[in-house]
Structures are given as C-alpha cells and as structure tokens.
Amino acid sequence: MQDRLTSTPHQSDEIARIGVFDSGVGGLTVLKEIYRQLPHESVLYFGDTARVPYGTRSAAEILKFTRQTLDWMVQQRVKMAIMACNTSSALALETVQSEYDLPILGVILPGARAAALQGRRIGVIATPATVNSNAYLHAILEANPRTQIWQVACPKFVPIIEHNRIAAPDTLQIATAYIQPLLDRSIDTLVYGCTHYPHLEPVLRQFVPRTIQFINPAVAVVTAAANELNLLGIQSHCKAMPTKFIVSGDPAQFTQIASQWLPAPLVQQIILPTVTVS
Ligand code: DGL
Q: For ligand 1, which residues put their CB under 6 angstroms from it?
C-alpha cells in the first residue's frame, strides 16, 4: 500500500518534520502554537486549497482527502501528523489512526477536554460537517457530563477567511447572527470548533462579552503533540528548519492571505498524484 514509517524511532525521526494539514489557512492557528510551544520542531504544512471548504462535504469525501494527504505525508517521511482541521478530525481521525503506522493527532479531543475543564455552559461554533458529527458534544460530555452544550454551524466563516474578507463590513453582522443565539443561552465558554475561526477573533471580540472565555483547541493539541513526541523519544533538539508550505491550489493566493499572520511564507504548489477533485 503506502510507504509506511516504522514506529521504532530512528535517529533521523528527531529531525524529521511534523506534518500539519488543513483545507487552507485554518491550520496556521495550529502552526502558530507549534512555533510557541515547540520551537525546535520543523513543520511541513499542507493546505488543500484546491478543495476548500471541507466543512460542507460528505464524510466519504473527507475520509478520501485525508487518506490522500496522509499517503503523501508518509512519503515525505514526516514523524507525526497533526490534523489541524476539526472536520477531518471529526470524520476521519479514528479510521486513519488504525490504518497508518504514524502518530496522528486530531484537534477535537484535546479541545473538548480543555473546554470541559473550564466551562459549564459551552457553545461550540464549527463547520456543518463537524456539528452534524456531534464529535464535540460527545467528547465534552465524556470529559464532564455536567456540562451543557450548544452547537452552531457557521458555513459562511471559512469562505470569508479564505477570500480575505475578515475586515469586510458585513462580516460582523454575519458573525453576530451565528453567535447571538449562543449568547442568549448565557454560555460561559465558546469553543473554536474550526481551526479557521481564531482568525476571526478581532471581529468576535467586538460583541462577545469579555466574561466569555474562548477555547482554541490548537493550544491543547500542540501540548498533546509535545507529550507524544517526548513519549516516543522523537522530539527535536536541533534548530528548526523553515516551515515548508505546500498547497494544492493557487500558491499566490495562499501567500497573500497567510501573510496577515506569517512573515512572507514561501509557498509551493503540489499536484498530488492521488488528488483528483471528484
Ligand atoms: N479548518 C477546518 C476545520 O477546522 C476546515 C474548514 C473547512 O474547510 O470547511 O474544520
């Protein structure tokens, strides 16, 4: 099948890259946390921008795209993969964890545990696919059965972010329409159930009261990755290499959007041999 990594750590695993992937720029919120918590680790970032958004696709498509990305990442000899995408984590993580001989982490479990530790009345904003999976609902309730949870699907958010319209005049109005029903429930905690959404924080902070805490699962997944690397003895002690950015769509568009959060990333395009838009 695929070129698999052995689970026995090699000397070279320490300096191998961590593979981070998302449908687009959402995973940059996880990348930022890697830079903060794991400054010695090198990253291979893949944004499947030719097929964004994932959140309105079927479970079968998401599983197929996830396998294609992981097949390619294994060929690139990454030492670990982080699904910096809630939609893939909700719909494909369990399946692929049993298929690949590679540590694969998803954002939902770490994010749900962080939310359950801090909140009692929890709002989750996510893509339609993630909301429909009820992955957060189940994971938060498992971590703390005394929590109350309300979920809202926000299908307009990812296109707003991917098309550089965060500062557009109607974004605040769209965000308010999605989130006001959660505020009406007197939530104390709001979970970013999509890795794109922390990019909207400047907009959300305009109307979400300061008393409501935001949970960004990126923080918890990178802490989990750090623990896993230590456990496996494959953490890097070397200077990190510059992040390699690869996208399936237009590299110039990715660079333009990503430059808001990263200093001039150098982005390459790849046409994955296995990637065909269905
Ligand atoms: N950022 C991803 C997520 O966390 C994907 C969003 C999308 O492509 O719809 O779900």
A: 22-23, 26, 52-55, 85-87, 127, 130, 158, 194-196
Give the pLDDT confidence of 194-230 residue by residue, as tens digits.
999 999 999 999 999 999 999 999 999 999 999 999 9
Is pTM beyond 0.70 here? yes
Q: Which domain holds residue 203?
A: 109-217
Catalytic residue among 25, 190, 194, 208: 194
Domain assignment of residue 277, yes or no: no
Alpha-carbon distance 24 to 217, whole Å? 17
3-state secondary structure of 265: coil
Domain check: are 230 and 196 in the same one? no
Question: Mind listing the pLDDT tens digit for each residue in 43-72?
Answer: 999 999 999 999 999 999 999 999 999 999
Residue 26 alpha carbon, nearest atom of ligand 1: 1
